[in-house]
């Protein structure tokens, strides 16, 4: 039976726009900022393989499940889960899927905005010539000076949050759709230009070798020297990180994909759109690595430099290339665009819920969500300066790192697990058949096995290993 519901927030004008919007949600700082530095931290090529397997076996099937739930419910994630649980005769406790997604997205937005603020600051550094002839030492000092200043970080954090909520307040067609149609094509073009530069000026052989030479011993072993001997042990942490990155970069488990799914036209193919979105997102992540690692090695920098990697490598490239001042300015503008499109999608579930449940105007709802996320983000700002000491750490992590770890490695995979379990066991096969409309029965059966068994078991095993129970 065709789904006759219509979202009160409006609908995407076409399947192509939905794909572009969801790619905009998925392609963001997770691809260009986070993927390169965690690949550097976990040994390169073998980690890339693990990440790609997580995308294929867990990410894509769960994205299909999340989109079909959104289109079926046509509401915010919280209200969608309440409605579908009631219609399918399941426990109302399944609404926790919607609530956890909104909370995870809210948590991510509170530190995402701070990192996006770094990119905003670098726009002005590049445009003013502040990156001209910069050395590796200068680039490091510049970045450390930025994150060491709470006043500067607060300004950029605040500005980015205002930018995000200004778009969300305008709604689906006038805000989200219009912004995405401009932001995403421009990002792809500039990323390809950066890849071209890496091939010409970077150490492309070492960069590609680092990304694509596969040595699993560098991924799943932790080696420490004890009493003059090197002791190695197996660790499943990289698998947890790869799975968390797959969820983070595809915007899964945070309500954004379910919210965007609510605006998908009935005639649009969820399966085809999902594969296209995941492929585009993965290509951007790989291109970002190809653009960055050759520059890292050519500049004599350490690929495991952590969250500041992109802000300590690309300035060197821009500062020493012909037309670098212009290229640098445009690139950091587009990095902000990528972050902006993702932040917009992260905000949408909470704003949509307030509009539906509290009957607030979108502008009012966007302002409230923005203020609360901004306040929570202050802790992320201070994590790099005033609260950087050991006395402000929990479980050995700063507040910024703790929020990143909880959201990316705990809440998002758990949200994905609950989505898979609800579709497979709480709702059932018939609803999935109606929404996915897969013409090839074998293809649907394969997806059904993955969503019912493989994805839940895979996520559960990774978590059990991460807490030391396996």
Strand content: under 5%
What does the largest sheet look like? 2 strands, antiparallel
Could you name the CATH topology? Amino acid/polyamine transporter I
Q: Strands of the biggest beta sheet: in what spatial order? A: 1-2
Question: How many β strands by DSSP?
Answer: 2
Secondary-structure element order, as H and E?
HHHHHHHHHEEHHHHHHHHH
Considering DSSP H and I runs of 4 or more, what fraction of the residues is helical?
A: over 70%
Rounded radius of gyration (Å): 22 Å
Explain briefly what this protein structure is.
The protein has one domain: Amino acid/polyamine transporter I (Up-down Bundle). By secondary structure, the protein is an all-alpha fold. It is built from 18 helices and two strands.
Write a structural description:
73% of the residues lie in helices and 3% in strands. The protein has 470 residues and is mainly α. It has a single domain (15-466), classed as Amino acid/polyamine transporter I, CATH 1.20.1740. The chain has a two-stranded antiparallel ribbon. The longest helix is centred in the C-terminal third of the chain and has 35 residues, at 324-358. The model has no long low-confidence stretch (mean pLDDT 84).
Features:
2 strands; mainly alpha; 470 residues; globular; single chain; 18 helices
């Amino acid at each position: 039976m065709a789904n006759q519901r219509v979202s009160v927030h409006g609908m995407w004008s076409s399947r192509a726009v939905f794909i572009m919007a969801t790619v905009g949600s998925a392609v963001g700082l997770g691809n260009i900022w986070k993927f390169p530095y965690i690949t550097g931290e976990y040994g390169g090529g073998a980690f890339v393989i693990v990440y790609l397997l997580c995308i294929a076996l867990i990410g894509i099937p769960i994205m299909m499940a999340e989109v079909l739930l959104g289109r079926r419910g046509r509401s915010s994630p919280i209200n969608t889960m309440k409605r579908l649980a009631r219609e399918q005769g399941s426990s109302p406790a399944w609404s926790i899927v919607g609530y956890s997604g909104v909370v995870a997205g809210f948590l991510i937005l509170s530190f995402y905005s701070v990192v996006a603020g770094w990119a905003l600051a670098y726009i002005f550094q590049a445009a003013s010539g502040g990156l001209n002839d910069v050395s590796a030492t200068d680039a490091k000092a510049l970045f450390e000076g930025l994150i060491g200043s709470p006043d500067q970080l607060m300004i950029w954090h605040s500005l980015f949050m205002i930018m995000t909520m200004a778009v969300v307040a305008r709604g689906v067609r006038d805000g989200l759709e219009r912004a995405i149609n401009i932001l995403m094509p421009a990002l792809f073009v500039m990323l390809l230009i950066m890849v071209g530069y890496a091939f010409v000026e970077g150490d492309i052989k070492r960069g590609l070798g680092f990304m694509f030479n596969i040595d699993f011993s560098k991924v799943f072993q932790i080696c420490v020297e004890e009493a003059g001997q090197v002791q190695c042990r197996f660790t499943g942490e990289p698998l947890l990180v790869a799975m968390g990155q797959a969820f983070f970069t595809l915007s899964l488990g945070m309500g954004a994909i379910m919210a965007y799914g609510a605006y998908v036209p009935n005639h649009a193919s969820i399966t085809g759109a999902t594969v296209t979105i995941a492929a585009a997102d993965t290509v951007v992540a790989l291109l970002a690595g190809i653009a960055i690692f050759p520059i890292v090695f050519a500049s004599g920098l350490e690929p495991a430099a952590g969250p500041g990697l992109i802000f300590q490598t690309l300035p060197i490239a821009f500062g020493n290339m012909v037309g670098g001042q212009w290229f640098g300015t445009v690139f950091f503008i587009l990095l902000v665009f990528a972050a902006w499109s993702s932040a917009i999608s992260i905000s949408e579930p909470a704003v949509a819920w307030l509009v539906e449940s509290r009957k607030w105007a979108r502008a009012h709802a966007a302002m409230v969500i923005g203020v609360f996320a901004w306040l929570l983000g202050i802790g992320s700002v201070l994590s790099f300066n005033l609260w950087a000491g050991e006395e402000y750490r929990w479980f050995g992590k700063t507040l910024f790192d703790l929020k990143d770890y909880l959201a990316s490695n705990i809440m998002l995979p758990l949200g994905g697990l609950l989505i898979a379990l609800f579709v497979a066991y709480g709702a059932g096969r018939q609803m999935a058949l109606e929404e996915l409309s897969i013409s090839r029965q074998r293809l649907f059966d394969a997806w059904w096995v993955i969503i019912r068994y493989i994805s839940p078991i895979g996520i559960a095993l990774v978590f059990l290993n991460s807490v030391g129970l396996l």
